[in-house]
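Entry type: protein chain
Record version: 2
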Amino acid sequence: MPDHIKKQLQAEIHVLEHELAHELPAEIKKAASLGDLSENAEYHMAKQRQVFVNARLGQLKKRMAELSLVNLANIPRDMAAFGSTIVIYDSTKDEEIIYRLVTSEESDVTKGLISTTSPIGRSLVGKKVGDVATVITPNGKRELEILKITTIHDEAEAAEKDK
């Protein structure tokens, strides 16, 4: 897992754990002291926030566990996979596009960062140079021809040579 994603998730977990352990109990206690709980909006809002924070913490911890299972040694060296930069020809738009396959936390279509779980990302994973990936988008079917792939391993080797 990329370190910046791990740090980002850990930071959000830390903030939410602090809110759950310190801020929300104080809010709930203060709201409860105002009297009748059946019509106490502050109390109900704090309790709803508590449920949301608990759910979000569960999601973040699950995602951290999933990402920690990513073993870079298992990422293929000869086909598109997580971390690959892919040059494609989109025959629908008659243009070359460069995508990088990233985690869902890093995705930003405007920068060419495509999640491996997105429709385009899923269609590209496992493809080799010369393959054509067909993807169904809201705008219709697109055919993406793989022109070049630079895997995460290729990039690591290039960085080593530059040292």
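Comment: The longest strand covers residues 140-150.
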